[in-house]
Amino acid sequence: MKKCKVGPDTVRMLELGHPWVLSDKFTRQWPGGKSGDLIALVDETGQQLATALYDPDDRIVARVLTRGKLNLSVDWLETKLQAAKLLRQQHGQLEETDAYRLVNGEGDGLPGITVDCYADFLMVQLYTPAWDRHQSSLLTALQRVYQPRGIYRKLRPQETRQLEAKSSSKEYSRLLSGEAAPVPLQVTENGLHYLVDLSEGLNTGLFPDQRRNRRELMGRAAGKRVLNLFAFTGAFSVAAAAAGAKKVTSIDVSQKYLDVARENFACNRLNPKRHEFIIGDVFAELKKLREQGRRFDIILFDPPSFSTTKKSRFSTHGGTSKLVTETLPLLEPAGLLMSSSNHQKVSMEDYLKELRRGSLQSGSDLRTIFTSGQPEDFPSSVCFPEGRYLKFVISTTSSE
């Protein structure tokens, strides 16, 4: 195992428990190696600080696997997976749910790997090609611990760009072992049913990290008029309707996603014709709703970190405050604004500043009454703030 000296800044980060080594003038002097090599991180005295997985072409040039020495074997991986499984058995809050995260990367001591469960199938995402060399061992360990019917790998966006350069294919998943999942595959969350597709597309159609927040919505939606912006495949919309919302209006720019949303309503014996589905740019549709004098008791938005349509461009930085400003005129007095962001580089403190800016620009008195993040199956180390990416905030306006 090659010894790779790190600089004083990295030494301090490693001593604080951070699992990443970022490329700098010290890492550029490391001896040559291949992606997936195990390397010993050492300080200037030669003392070993950690064993890491090497990725010479990435900004994150090494990911820490352990503070000591190790053999990256099937048995070691199985031990990590068993620990992750036990955490979810003890603290998962997974009643009436078979769609959740089994491995959350750095939060489960496997940096650069996530594994999601969808009914009897697993979806693996590798965030660094360094794991490609160890994929066979990982598959064997997953099969030993979980005995899934099939294991898929979802390609990450950087790989997607490479695929798109080669062909027009939109199949970003591939079956690694076992049998293929039905298309669509029905899964259960909080006792509700949703359709997912493990075989193609950048996303499966359901984001399990919002499970607890959808349950929070369900406790507040009975008898309410609900507006869901950036509705995607309608998971929040279904949760609201199933909880007894008077009417749910779902807006998304994609007809494909809203078609799936209607199917998700039908899967739960909810008549989609009793609700409203609007295909269009969110900001353009908000303007129309204001002109129509529409009002809602609950408005929810969970936008992508960045998106572009023909009419507008949205990004979390600055976009959230604009969204709040244009949304609040539609909210009834004492209504609820449920807002969310999954942007890793935006802290909860910064996100609340965005809400404050939007509130001031609209002339509203917006008061936060509830905050949360990702659920228990998405653990994050206290030494790794980047792992606490999800922000979910419920605010209310003045009743005056």
Number of domains: 3
The coarse silhouette is globular
How far is the N terminus from the C terminus? 68 Å
In the CATH scheme, the class of the largest domain would be: Alpha Beta
Instruction: Tell me the major beta sheet.
Output: 7 strands, mixed
If you consult CATH, what is the topology of the largest domain? Rossmann fold
Mean pLDDT: 93
The CATH architecture name of the largest domain reads: 3-Layer(aba) Sandwich
Strand sequence of the main sheet, in spatial order? Answer: 15-14-13-16-19-21-20
Strand content: 25-35%
Number of strands: 21
By DSSP (H or I, 4+ residues per run), the number of helices equals 10
In the CATH hierarchy, what is the superfamily of the largest domain? Vaccinia Virus protein VP39
Helix percentage: 25-40%
Query: Which regions contain 5 or more consecutive residues with pLDDT less than 50?
Result: 163-169, 306-310
Give me the Rg, rounded.
Answer: 23 Å
Structural class from helices and strands?
alpha/beta
Structure description:
The chain has 400 residues and is α/β, with parallel strands linked by helices. The chain folds into three domains: 2-66, PUA domain (Archaeosine Trna-guanine Transglycosylase, Chain: A, domain 4); 74-186, Transcription Regulator spoIIAA; 207-397, 3-Layer(aba) Sandwich (Rossmann fold). The protein contains ten helices and 21 strands. The chain has helices at residues 8-15, 74-91, 135-146, 157-166, 211-218, 235-242, 255-267, 282-291, 316-327, 348-362; strands at residues 2-5, 20-22, 38-42, 48-54, 60-66, 99-104, 113-118, 121-126, 150-154, 173-178, 185-189, 192-196, 225-229, 247-252, 276-279, 296-301, 306-308, 313-315, 331-341, 366-372, 391-397. A seven-stranded mixed sheet has the order 15-14-13-16-19-21-20, with helices on both faces. A five-stranded mixed sheet has the order 1-3-4-5-2, with helices on one face. β14, α7 (255-267) and β15 (276-279) form a beta-alpha-beta unit. The longest helix is centred in the first third of the chain and has 18 residues, at 74-91. It starts with a strand and ends with a strand.
